[in-house]
Amino acid sequence: MNRATPDAGHVLEMRGICKSFPGVKALDGVHLKVRPGTVHVLVGENGAGKSTLMKVLSGEHAIDEGEIWFRGERLDGGGTRDALARGIAMIHQELSPVPEMTIAENIFLGREPTLRHGPLAALRSFVDFAEMARQTQALFDRLGLRYAPTQRMGELSIAGMQLVEIGKAISRGASLVIMDEPTSAISDTEVEMLFRQIDDLKSRGVAIIYISHKMDEIFRIADDITVIRDGQYVASGAATDYDEPRLIAQMVGRSIERIFPKETVPIGATVLELRGLTRRGVFEDISFQVAAGEIVGLAGLIGAGRTEVVRALFGLDPLDAGQILLDGRPVTIRRPADAIGRGIAMVSEDRKGEGLVLCRSVGENIALANLTRFVRGPVGLLDRADEQREAERMRKLLRIKTASLDTGAGTLSGGNQQKIVLAKWLLGDLKVLILDEPTRGIDVGSKSEIHRLMTDFARQGLAIIMISSELPEVLGMSDRVIVMQEGHVTGQLSRADATQESIMALATGARQ
Questions:
Q1: For residues 194 and 183, is the Cβ–Cβ distance under 8 A?
Q2: What is the mean pLDDT of residues 447-472?
Q3: Which of 25, 149, 163, 350 has a CB 3.0–4.6 Å from the CB of 104, allowing a cystine?
Q4: DSSP one-letter string for 233-268
Q5: Are strands 24-34 and 39-43 parallel, antiparallel or unpaired?
């Protein structure tokens, strides 16, 4: 590790990288070497240090020890501006667009073209909006994106924002692009578009560091793979040297025999029934039942209306028609409080934005949805001791990895944050549990734990609705699959009859 120059043939070499935060050693001697014109996939469980390593590379964090060599020059911690100037661009998993600005303004933020002609050109401080729009349109034409440069960023879906961020990185002419979970919120069609752009970047010698938890994606796109675990380097090699069991074993330090630990449990009486639920222009005539102990998978392409249906069921969005029955009796649900009061809970796909208060502690988040059970006396004081006892019970039950209940929820890994959201609802008296993309952005080890918990919940008699865009998860965990297309239910499949082909046929409207 005392070489003065990097290995020939690598655009990037990171040697012995160490980084500590108060009370945590996030990186401990990590190595990474990336070849130009290749996709180097960086893998590890949530909390392994992948994003921290990339933030070190992109200049967001200063390293404590180690060396970084990029294109033959040593990086000396010049910050994000210096990294960008050298040709290192990072697309974060957590997007941070300026929603009130246009797409073009977001792409060129901080490097806006200025007027060169006309009476105001001499001031050199007036933005040339026409030129900005022209360059943005040229970029979109090249990438095949169908957005208007003048469209407001806040009007885009999460998928749209992700694609614009990718375009922004490409527009900077970067020679190394870091992509942190870039496909976590985009459709299959958009994934194909992204992969085409990656192939184009590779053909021009651009290196890509790609972080993903999706096994099929990793083996499809990777040229090389590096594994880190608990902040330490584990191994590197060509993607062709790996298979899924070996990669999982290196990531988690053990083999995972059953990622989908589905068990057959007794199916009880019908708990929830939807009859003709309709929200005009969004979904129409949605009808299905869920029984006690049953996991019903809700499948379909992005935009099929799956999330919209469960949002209406939970009282987040209004219904125009239809009936909801709980234990055979009609109920009215106009707001989430109505649903919660009847024993219906929903774990949103956006756990950070809608499921957690990131600035509050683990214990506070667990107790958040059930504060009334801890109120004592006529003046309504909270019994903090009881609150802590119940939160600690849930922490142990769900195996939430945290130093203490006082730890900030925002500091935990994605898998442990998802367990906090589950714990919050399980403190209540539940009948129906809605899980919207329960393992999105979660590593394979944590996925297995979430799936185990789902099986435990079903065994306890909960009626579970699971939305997932990952067909192996739908097939692995569902007792029955409801398929949607363009706001309509197109079919129901038993566990025995459900296959990837049969689900996709119903999701796309293809003839079987």
A1: yes
A2: 88
A3: 149
A4: EEEEEEGGG--HHHHHHHHHSS--S-SS--------
A5: unpaired
